[in-house]
Design brief:
mainly beta; Jelly Rolls; Immunoglobulin-like; 6-stranded mixed sheet
């Protein structure tokens, strides 16, 4: 078919109709007119009012859409309906009625199909009318293949098609086939969204800032229609209304927001074919800025400096409002009320004196001459009060030793008196009003030295928030009164002997104020200058910053007027430098001899101190001869003291309690046990040592040994004891060479086990000799004959009850 392009019709069943009462293409009377150049995009759902029609396929309405087809040229007509989804479960049905010009006279459907593609086992879910088919109806369910034969139409005939989707939720598209032709829709002579159709207007109706204006939409109709005949244009606020022809709006039209789209429906009155176009409505405000508030300080232009009335230059806001635009292109007027500004009535003078004290709102009317744009802006006028500025007096001490009445003032001391204690204030000081007015030679408020007494200077008080100023006079006077000096002395007994101490300065108040009038205040400062200008006051507790000795200052005031400045001499005395604790030892074995205890001075002479011993003595040295704890308090001439403790511990020579000997072995040992108050070391056979800490001696040779024990705690002396270690030689050589001529048991003497028995046997057990343990020993003979070289046996019965047996060798 010529001039019958593919028609896309979107059905989104999940969306509702745009308006509750709006017509929809669910009903025959609202059927969409199909035209040769139509392209419809519409959201619909449901069935609308169920239409009365009949067909041979059992079709009913589930989700339907109606189309109206009028032909400009006769011929064959077919179509293919293609669901957007390829799912075989998407089921579309249709019925075709006509030819007829009335929905009330549809008659029996001339074509219909209600075949279910899934039930019919089709390979796709398409449906429609086509040339090869011969049947005129099919369905429902598995009956048919979803296609029926196409129809032949005549020019001027009208047909209706209803399409229904009983199963599924997919939109669909229609493709027309055959030789018949639809009429062509009218065309907008200005393309859609062409800027020439849009309206761009200033907001020139009060209120001027709401973006609402009145538009003559009909001005666009000639441009849209052009030379086309049988064509009407209606205007709509939504595209859906324009497509369906619903709810046309009247012209002139008042917009509902500053930027709005209007849709035009262009319809041929004969074919009912239509197209839509759109254009913009834009309401703009005047290109101007709302002015900032105008604030000025109260003044005496009206004769009263504090009534909140002042004169404003309203014209000063114009450059801000126009923001660089040429003022010749605008008319600016000022009005007392918004209504006057909107109606351009009762303008007020640009030099305006407010009629309401402190705060008043007026209005600015801005009108752009070229295009009638108008704006009205509020302008807040504020009269800020001038800050409080009280005349005041500062009295300072003349304490520099020269009574000429000149001294240094801290002008900031008068701040609260001048400002009344108000916040957000600054003060600048000047020696003259001329300097103040010219902002020249501002004074150093922290330290100003007067050169007249009294002297008047000027204080410029500024409100830092509003910027308003006021002027006060400050009178400087010098006082020649004086206060008492004081001395605070302490001992450096705070636990750290470093010359620093935390002084309680209030202890000096009685001396400072002695004999002075009552109701004086005292404030402490570290330096004289700080006291003079009252900078960095100290608290009552102060740790000196110079070790040992330092002068600080007390400022005495009467109602913030300086009465006098006192010196306070701070002195931290050193404590005696002594040995605090000491331990010494006293040898008990030396009693009644004495030892000397001292006061323990370091790098000083005894006569500079006083001594108080726990024994009652008061000398630097005392003598004691018994252990114990002795204390002495050492006091300097400044009265500072330290306590010393001397612990006298006992010491003594050792007392032997026992000596244990392990002898007659390969490793003879001696273990020495002593008692006593000393600490002891041990030596064997040599009084000079070497000494050892251990009381055990090992690998001791047999025979007699001397054990020495000395006190090392206090060197109280050495004690000794002889020890016998029993043993015997392994061989002897009685060959007359004077070496090893006799065999004898060692460690026996007249004092050690003299009553022991020694028996010697040959290897056959024959007793050869019973030796006297105190003799030189056996000479290797028996009955005057030399015994041969051999091993011989012995039995020793010691006096302590032990029995020792063994053998030895006789060598020739």
């Amino acid at each position: 078919m010529n001039r019958t392009p593919k028609l896309l019709v979107l059905i989104i069943v999940s969306l509702l109709v745009n308006q509750f009462y709006a017509q929809t293409p669910n009903d025959c009377v609202d059927a969409i007119q199909i035209c040769g150049n139509s392209n419809v995009d519409l959201d619909v759902s449901g069935t609308g009012n169920v239409d009365t029609f009949s067909n041979a396929c059992g079709m009913v309405e589930n989700n339907t859409i109606w189309f109206r087809l009028t032909f400009e040229q006769g011929g064959t007509l077919g179509f293919v309906l293609t669901p957007n989804s390829t799912s075989i479960n998407e089921d579309y049905d249709f019925s075709v009625f006509g030819p007829t010009n009335s929905c009330a006279n549809l008659g029996q459907a001339i074509r219909c199909s209600t075949t279910n593609p899934a039930a019919a086992n089709q390979g796709n879910n398409l449906t429609g009318m086509s040339d090869p088919e011969t049947d005129v109806s099919e369905g429902p369910g598995a009956d048919g293949n979803s296609f029926v034969s196409w129809i032949t139409v005549q020019a001027g005939e009208t047909y209706y098609i209803v399409i229904d989707r009983p199963v599924g939720n997919s939109p669909f598209s229609l493709e027309w086939t055959g030789t018949a032709q639809f009429p062509v829709s009218p065309e907008p002579q200005v393309p859609t969204n062409d800027a020439s159709l849009s309206f761009d207007m200033c907001d020139n109706e009060a209120p001027f800032d709401d973006g609402i204006a009145s538009f003559n939409l009909d001005e666009n109709t000639p441009a849209i229609v052009g030379a086309q005949t049988n064509t009407v244009v209606t205007y709509h606020t939504t595209e859906g209304d324009a497509i369906l022809g619903n709810n046309p709006i009247a012209s002139p039209y008042t917009n509902t927001n500053s930027a709005e789209i209007i849709y035009a429906r262009i319809e041929n009155t004969i074919s009912q074919c239509f197209v839509t176009t759109q254009f913009d409505l834009n309401v703009r405000s005047i290109n101007a800025n709302p002015p900032n508030d105008l604030s000025i300080c109260d003044n005496d232009s009206d004769g009263d400096i504090a009534n909140g009335i002042a004169e404003f230059d309203l014209e000063a806001t114009v450059p801000e409002i126009l923001n660089g635009q040429n003022p010749d292109n605008f008319t600016v007027t000022f009005h007392a009320t918004e209504n006057d500004a909107e109606n351009d009535t009762n303008p007020i003078a640009a030099m305006f004196e407010n009629t309401m004290a402190d705060n008043q709102e007026v209005f600015v009317r801005i009108e752009e001459i070229a295009n009638d744009c108008i704006g009205v802006f509020p302008l807040n006028l504020t009269v800020n009060p001038i800050p409080e500025a009280n005349d005041s007096t500062l009295i300072q001490c003349d304490e520099d030793g020269i009574p000429e009445g000149f001294t240094i003032f801290d002008l900031n001391e008068a701040f609260d008196d001048i400002t009344g204690g108000a916040t957000d204030r600054t003060i600048n000081f000047y020696v003259s009003l001329a300097d103040l007015e010219n902002n020249e030679d501002e004074l150093n408020a922290d330290a100003f030295e007067n050169y007249f007494n009294p002297q008047t200077i000027y204080a410029l008080v500024t409100d830092t928030v509003a910027g308003c100023t006021n002027i006060a006079e400050l009178t400087l006077e010098t006082s020649s009164t004086s206060s008492n000096n004081a001395i605070l002395e302490v001992c450096d007994d705070d636990g750290t002997e470093d010359g620093f101490y935390n002084f309680n300065l209030s202890n000096a108040l009685d001396d400072i104020l002695f004999g002075l009038p009552a109701d004086l205040d005292v404030i402490f400062y570290e330096t004289y200058e700080e006291a003079l200008i009252e900078d960095n006051p100290l608290g009552n507790n102060f740790v000196n910053t110079i070790p040992g000795s330092q002068i600080i200052y007390a400022r005495v005031e009467n109602m913030n007027a300086c009465f006098g400045i006192s010196d306070i001499q701070l002195t931290v005395f050193e404590l005696p430098n002594i040995v605090i604790q000491e331990e010494v030892f006293y040898c008990l074995n030396n009693f009644p001899e004495t030892i000397t205890l001292t006061g323990g001075l370091i790098d000083d002479i005894p006569n500079n101190y006083y001594y108080d011993w726990s024994t009652g003595e008061d000398e630097f040295e005392i003598e004691v001869n018994e252990p114990g704890t002795y204390t002495v308090r050492v006091t300097s001439t400044d009265g500072c003291f330290k306590d010393r403790t001397i612990t006298v511990l006992p010491s003594d020579t050792a007392t032997f309690t026992s000596i244990e000997v392990t002898d007659a072995t390969n490793n003879n040992s001696i273990s020495v046990f002593v008692s006593g108050d000393g600490i002891y070391e041990y030596a064997l056979d040599d009084i000079n040592g070497p000494y050892q800490e251990s009381n055990i001696f090992e690998n001791v040779s047999f025979g007699f040994h001397t054990v020495y024990v000395r006190d090392i705690e206090n060197d109280c002396g050495i004690v000794e004891e002889i020890v016998s270690v029993i043993g015997f030689p392994k061989f002897f050589t009685p060959n007359g060479d004077t070496y090893n001529q006799h065999w004898q048991v060692k460690g026996i003497s007249a004092d050690f086990q003299p009553n022991s028995q020694i028996l010697i046997f040959d290897r056959f057990g024959k007793l050869l000799k019973e030796l006297d343990p105190l003799s030189v020993g056996w000479d290797g003979t028996f009955e005057g004959f030399n015994m041969p070289a051999s091993d011989y046996w012995f039995v020793i019965n010691l006096q302590d009850g032990r029995t020792l047996k063994g053998h030895f060798a006789l060598k020739r």
